[in-house]
From TrEMBL:
PROSITE patterns on file: HTH_ARSR_2
Superkingdom classification of source: Bacteria
Protein name per its UniProtKB record: Transcriptional regulator
Lineage: Bacteria, Pseudomonadati, Pseudomonadota, Gammaproteobacteria, Oceanospirillales
HTH arsR-type domain sequence ranges: 1-101
One MF annotation (Gene Ontology) recorded for this entry: DNA binding
Pfam families: HTH_5 (PF01022)
Keywords recorded for this protein, A-Z: DNA-binding, Transcription, Transcription regulation
């Protein structure tokens, strides 16, 4: 992970809603138990919109930032986009921060 990538990841975490999304995706069964599709697919963007209480376009922009930083991954199934945490990248990020600080 380059210094520029680390900086981008830190910037991605600068917004509280993006941190909330990562928190919700850590234990989706607690926050998205009523999702119709299996949580093994990830969490549907519409469920994240509803949990966040903001517009779909706002949530989409935040999800795109988290995707670019590598903190989450997405999968499209039919008309739905599902998101889940990328635990390997999150652990690499934490390790890199520990090295730096």
């Amino acid at each position: 992970m380059s210094a520029a990538e680390l900086d981008e990841m830190i910037k991605a975490l600068s917004h509280p809603l993006r941190r909330d999304i990562l928190h919700w995706l850590k234990q989706p069964e607690l926050f998205f138990a009523d999702q119709e599709h299996p949580l093994s697919f990830g969490v549907c963007a519409g469920m994240i919109d509803r949990q966040a209480g903001v517009s779909q376009s706002t949530v989409s922009a935040h999800l795109a930032t988290l995707l670019r930083a590598g903190f989450i991954s997405s999968k499209k199934l039919g008309q739905w986009n599902f998101f889940m945490r990328n635990e390997a990248v999150i652990q690499q990020f934490i390790a890199r921060l520990n090295e730096q600080l």
